[in-house]
Design a protein that fits this description.
Layout lengths: L1 E9 L11 E10 L3 H16 L10 H6 L9 H17 L3 E8 H7 L8 H16 L4 E7 L5 H13 L13 E8 L5 H18 L5 H16 L1 E8 L4
Parallel strand pairs: 1-4, 3-6, 4-5
Antiparallel strand pairs: 1-2, 2-3
Helix pairs in contact: 1-3, 3-8, 7-8
Length: 241
């Protein structure tokens, strides 16, 4: 038996990243027996909420929450219901969650800007070390969303952590992660789509920007479902004073 560790990030690049203090990597930890059921379940949910499954469809947290893309004609209540249904699959399919966050401005201040480019790698190292420490004894295969500017360095990071106990910083040797980290398009990976939905909800909860009572209630319920499935997490780093 093996587990698939699907990783996605939020707060690093793209629209609005400058207004997001945290770079967060979230992992959906999927038993190998649940990989295909997850794919089938997400297809069923797409059909349930959209009435069809578009050729280029994928679950993307910012689109489902904000009513963009294929979700643009849905009401707020319909969007929240779809988001809840996806997160409910964590319990149904016994998928666990882990995450780590880097505070970008604190990192900049701590190292006078010299470590800014390492935020993603630090988050990945902390995430995988916590999964190694808290997770099961099953072997693990890591699959991450495409991150072209980080891919070669991330592959080296995993190799270093498998061979030694030093990555970006001294840490824990990875004994259960086999092979390298594999990068895939989120549209081709239901596991990455689940990690994306989790990452979005975690960031949304952290920033507390929602004011509509129904949105706040739904986000709290989604967050509690994620916490119920949480295997481990890494406190935001560097810590505040």
């Amino acid at each position: 038996m093996a587990e698939l560790i699907y990783i996605d990030e939020t707060g690093s690049t793209g629209k609005g990243a400058r207004n997001q203090p945290l770079l967060t990597l979230a992992a959906a930890i999927v038993p190998e027996t649940q990989v295909q059921p997850l794919a089938a379940s997400l297809r069923k949910l797409a059909f349930k909420h959209l009435g069809w499954v578009p050729k280029d469809f994928e679950f993307h947290g910012v689109e489902v929450w904000g009513g963009a893309g294929h979700w643009k004609d849905k009401t707020p209540a319909e969007l929240l219901a779809a988001f809840r249904d996806v997160i409910d699959l964590l319990a149904t399919l016994e998928i666990q969650v882990a995450y780590s966050s880097i505070h970008k401005s604190r990192l900049h201040e701590k190292y006078d800007g010299s470590a800014d480019a390492n935020a993603y790698l630090l988050a990945m190292q902390f995430l995988l070390e916590k999964i190694e420490l808290r997770g099961s004894s099953e072997l693990k295969i890591v699959v991450a969303d495409e991150a072209k500017e980080h891919e070669s360095n991330a592959i080296k990071l995993i190799s270093d952590l498998q061979s030694y106990n030093v990555g970006v910083v001294p840490g824990k040797k990875l004994k259960r992660v086999i092979d390298s980290v594999h990068f895939a398009r989120s549209s081709d990976s239901p596991g990455i789509q689940m990690a994306d939905m989790v990452a979005f909800a975690l960031q949304r909860k952290q920033y507390q920007k929602d004011s509509h009572p129904e949105a706040v209630t739904a986000l709290n319920e989604i967050y509690e479902a994620i916490i119920s499935a949480r295997l481990t997490y890494r406190d935001v780093w560097p810590a505040g004073i």
